[in-house]
Design brief:
Blueprint: E1 11-13, E2 16-17, H1 33-46, E3 51-54, H2 59-64, E4 78-82, H3 88-98, E5 102-106, E6 111-115, E7 122-125
Parallel strand pairs: 5-7
Antiparallel strand pairs: 1-2, 3-4, 4-6, 5-6
The protein binds zinc ion (2 copies).
Length: about 130
């Protein structure tokens, strides 16, 4: 169905579309405004594109990729990101300033996990 090509093709901020956050297996999506607001702040600070490598995940997809149970990705509070031509440590420092409540540093896979969990701050690296 051709119409499905445009599902979630909605601009939710100047530089982000809802489709970028959708689950790759089913196109379902949840996105908390606080997560979006912080990503917009990050985008404006960086002045370059942010690639959402994983946004919302339905529970089926989350278990498929062996995500942790009850992941913040499953309730629209988390995004994994990559940014071209910037050192991951440098990116981490900028994200610290924006104060995402959860930040995971994935050195080998070269991405950051960012979330706006309601509980206390959490930092980890892999
Ligand atoms: Zn799915
Ligand atoms: Zn993540």
């Amino acid at each position: 169905m051709q119409m499905l090509n445009s599902i979630n093709n909605i601009r939710v901020a100047k530089d982000f579309r809802l489709s970028e956050f959708a689950c790759p297996c089913c196109n379902l999506v949840m996105l908390h405004p606080k997560l979006l607001a912080k990503l917009v702040e990050l985008r404006n600070t960086l002045e370059r594109p942010i690639y959402i490598t994983s946004g919302y995940r339905c529970s089926k997809y989350n278990s498929q990729i062996r995500g942790i149970r009850n992941s913040y990705h499953c309730i629209g509070l988390a995004a994994d990101i990559k940014v071209k031509d910037i050192n991951l440590i440098e990116l981490l420092e900028i994200c610290e300033n924006i104060d995402f409540n959860g930040i995971g540093f994935y050195e080998k896979k070269n991405f950051l996990h960012l979330d706006v969990r309601p509980t206390k701050r959490s930092r980890w690296r892999e």
